[in-house]
Amino acid sequence: xxxxxxxxxxxxxxxxxxxxxxxxxxxxxxxxxxxxxxxxxxxxxxxxxxxxxxxxxxxxxxxxxxxxxxxxxxxxxxxxxxxxxxxxxxxxxxxxxxxxxxxxxxxxxxxxxxxxxxxxxxxxxxxx
Length: 128
What we know:
This protein is an alpha+beta fold. 34% of the residues lie in helices and 15% in strands. The chain has a domain at 1-89: Structural Genomics Hypothetical 15.5 Kd Protein In mrcA-pckA Intergenic Region, Chain A. Helix 1 (9-15) packs across helix 2.
């Protein structure tokens, strides 16, 4: 009988690069952003191959299926080989629409604050 490898859920989510730090992965588990079979998953839950998780990150709502276990953080190209992204198509379409309407926060050129020359002209106008 083969020995089953134990791997915590927070460590797995960190190693496949869904979260930047293991602390962030554990916090996401504690706050209910990681679900297994529709219910909240604890950070200490053991991950098994074939498990499916719903994970909510800042950027996207993931639905992943575990295909391999990683105990260490590896390059992104290697990490992708250890899970299958089974995110529904409507979520992917929502993200594309959201990205298209994203506002950077920078003001358009020539609109908004006056230039230095325009400020001088205004100062001259109000001084008279």
